[in-house]
């Protein structure tokens, strides 16, 4: 009996049990996972933006938070009212354009290869999930708007009362559930340092890549720029694979409007943008812990997409990095260099 008690008193065992309990709770509220993820992402990104602004501009923190949220809600309102019909129409046209290409007969060997790539099960699943996600997002705008609005309100209250929330939450450290609180604090810190940082970096990289890609597409004379920009941004949130997936419909459209020469120009431009991401943005924004081998990246994306759908493509790598950090999987070479 004492041996069993000693076993459950071990810190690693208690940590594992509490982690399993957290996973079980999240699984039980899986119907609210969209709201939970959106709230966390909004809170983390807006907190970083507020901290960045207040560190450089001497303004009251509450005023900065309110001004930023008013600006975001205003832009979302204008976007929904003015650009939603245009976006929905352009996304529908993009789907028709890609579908028409795949059903047309082609004698060229290169076109056969492109069509075989598109028809492969995994690429097809990614493209279908991505396009269906966008269609559902913009067609079922009422449900999406409610979730986004609630997530924005929760993140707003979090940022407005952040000092008070921290002070109140610290009271649990000396309560009867202190052991449980300490483990929650451990996992929360790890989660924000890994999952949050990776999500933040993915958003910044996707935004920069989208701006650069849109400039290239406008120069090359692509149609449906707004729809393509949204597609590139959402696919840009997928590490590594997003570039490959977005290149497939872009290549089809480039060939349709300008033949092989336009495809060549597109490939050169995308290679330059990808080089900027790989050699400039990733080293500056991504931690060394997120420098996963490409094989691991694709395996994680495949499994996370099969289990969690579109959200799995976006949060699969951050969750995997979080688990690596919890398990203590670090870069040994870096630890030796830094003397740790």
Task: Write structural notes for this entry.
- With 340 residues, the chain is mainly alpha-helical.
- The chain has one domain (2-338).
- Helices cover 86% and strands 0% of the residues.
- The protein contains 14 helices and no strands.
- The protein has helices at residues 2-9, 11-28, 33-56, 61-103, 109-119, 121-139, 141-160, 162-169, 178-220, 225-236, 241-285, 294-308, 310-327, 332-338.
- Helix 4 (61-103) packs antiparallel against helix 7 (141-160).
- The protein is globular, with a radius of gyration of 23 Å.
- The protein starts with a helix and ends with a helix.
- Mean pLDDT is 76; it is low at 332-340.
Give a topology summary.
Elements: H1 2-9, H2 11-28, H3 33-56, H4 61-103, H5 109-119, H6 121-139, H7 141-160, H8 162-169, H9 178-220, H10 225-236, H11 241-285, H12 294-308, H13 310-327, H14 332-338
Helix pairs in contact: 2-9, 3-4, 3-7, 3-9, 4-6, 4-7, 4-10, 9-10, 9-11, 9-13, 10-11, 12-13
């Amino acid at each position: 009996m004492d041996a069993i008690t000693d076993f459950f008193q071990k810190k690693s065992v208690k940590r594992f049990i509490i982690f399993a309990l957290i996973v079980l709770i999240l699984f039980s509220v899986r119907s609210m996972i969209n709201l939970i993820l959106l709230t966390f992402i909004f809170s983390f990104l807006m907190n970083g933006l507020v901290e960045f602004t207040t560190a450089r501009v001497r303004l009251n923190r509450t005023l900065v938070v309110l001004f930023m949220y008013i600006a975001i809600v205003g832009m979302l309102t204008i976007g929904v009212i003015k650009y939603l019909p245009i976006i929905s129409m352009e996304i529908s046209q993009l789907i028709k354009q890609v579908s028409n290409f795949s059903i047309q007969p082609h004698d060229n060997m290169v076109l056969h290869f492109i069509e075989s790539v598109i028809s492969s099960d995994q690429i097809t699943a990614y493209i279908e999930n991505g396009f269906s996600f966008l269609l559902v997002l913009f067609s079922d705008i009422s449900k999406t708007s409610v979730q986004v609005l609630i997530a924005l309100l929760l993140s707003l209250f979090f940022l407005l009362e952040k000092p008070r929330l921290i002070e109140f939450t610290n009271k649990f450290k000396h309560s009867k559930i202190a052991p449980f609180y300490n483990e929650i604090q451990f996992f929360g810190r790890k989660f924000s340092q890994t999952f949050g940082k990776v999500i933040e970096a993915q958003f910044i990289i996707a935004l920069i890549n989208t701006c650069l890609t849109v400039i290239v597409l406008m120069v090359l004379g692509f149609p449906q720029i707004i729809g393509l920009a949204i597609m590139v941004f959402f696919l840009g949130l997928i590490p590594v694979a997003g570039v490959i997936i977005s290149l497939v419909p872009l290549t089809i459209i480039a060939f349709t409007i300008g033949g092989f020469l336009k495809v060549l120009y597109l490939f050169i431009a995308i290679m330059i943008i990808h080089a900027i991401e790989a050699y400039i943005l990733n080293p500056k924004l991504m931690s060394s812990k997120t420098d996963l081998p490409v094989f691991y990246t694709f395996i994680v994306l495949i499994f996370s997409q099969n289990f969690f759908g579109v959200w799995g493509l976006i949060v699969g790598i951050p969750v995997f990095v979080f688990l690596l950090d919890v398990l203590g999987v670090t870069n040994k070479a870096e630890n030796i260099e830094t003397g740790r």
